[in-house]
Amino acid sequence: MHLALIGYGSIGKRIVAWLADHPVQQLTIMVRSGAIGQTLGDPALAQAAKAAQVTDDIGTLMEGKPDLVVECAGQAVVAAHGPVILTAGLDLVVVSVGALADNDLRQRLAAASEAGRAELILPPGAIGGLDLLSTLALAGDVQVTYRGTKPPQAWRGTPAEDLCDLSYLRQPTTFFDDSARDAARLYPKNANVAATLALAAGSFDRTRVQLIADPDATGNAHSFDVRSPAGSFSMQIESSPSADNAKTSVTTAFSVISEIIRKRAALAE
């Protein structure tokens, strides 16, 4: 199997760590300009694949015709490279699901997927219950309220810093209460779960999102309530944050790994 990663942050590194015990034939990693040497110096690459390549050029990545491309580099990368990857017939896993809050981009990705006969894969990430939510959404008038609770440090570098004093919180503080579309726009590195739920519910505008900074939180908590004429349910999941990125849950990387396993099994058939 030829696997390609776009981005080599906490998610990419955890995937490569897993590959050490489940190596692929070929691994290509695309990083930002200037980071090639640092990435090549990671000793984990030697165990992850029989042949590893690091580039900063999307054309070079695509020339190798990888069996699966995994995006874990942010919404801007999805917009810049997602359509061309799919049009070229390459299956694409999108981790930065919040990018699909942009209706135009979502339509372009769908059209590219059809034109290239390639699969656009949206992993569940840190959340579950999506199959039931999608089913209930068919009944119409589905109402979804999502609450994302993380330690204050996970919200640094976001608009939350201007809405509350993250250094001196004494109790859980809700600093955002609006639509999933606005959550994806304002908190692109923290709202992928909200975007995933909105896609399953069929509406970014009708999916309500509450973002909370909790000084007593030890991990990332995701809870949501679903109400529809056909049925209702609630779910709560607590995930460990990545050691080097408090914004990202560890389960997100393993959600991507499950897609890699699925693709590898399909290639072996």
Automatic annotation (TrEMBL):
Residues involved in NAD(+) binding: A126, N192
Reaction catalyzed: L-aspartate + NAD(+) + H2O = oxaloacetate + NH4(+) + NADH + H(+); L-aspartate + NADP(+) + H2O = oxaloacetate + NH4(+) + NADPH + H(+)
One example GO MF annotation: NAD binding
Pathway noted in the entry: Cofactor biosynthesis; NAD(+) biosynthesis; iminoaspartate from L-aspartate (dehydrogenase route): step 1/1
Catalytic site positions: H222
SUPFAM superfamilies given in the database record: Glyceraldehyde-3-phosphate dehydrogenase-like, C-terminal domain (SSF55347), NAD(P)-binding Rossmann-fold domains (SSF51735)
Coiled coil residues, start to end: none
Keyword entries, A-Z: NAD, NADP, Oxidoreductase, Pyridine nucleotide biosynthesis
Residues in Aspartate dehydrogenase domain copies: 170-257
E.C. numbers: 1.4.1.21
GO biological process, one term: NAD+ biosynthetic process
InterPro entries: Asp/hSer_DH_NAD-bd (IPR005106), Asp_DH (IPR002811), Asp_DH_prok (IPR020626), L-Asp_DH (IPR011182), NAD(P)-bd_dom_sf (IPR036291)
Domain Aspartate/homoserine dehydrogenase NAD-binding: 7-122
UniProt record similarity statement: Belongs to the L-aspartate dehydrogenase family.
PANTHER family found in the cross-reference section: ASPARTATE DEHYDROGENASE DOMAIN-CONTAINING PROTEIN (PTHR31873:SF6), L-ASPARTATE DEHYDROGENASE-RELATED (PTHR31873)
Function summary: Specifically catalyzes the NAD or NADP-dependent dehydrogenation of L-aspartate to iminoaspartate.
HAMAP family: NadX
Miscellaneous note of the record: The iminoaspartate product is unstable in aqueous solution and can decompose to oxaloacetate and ammonia.
Protein name: L-aspartate dehydrogenase
Species whose genome carries this gene: Roseobacter cerasinus
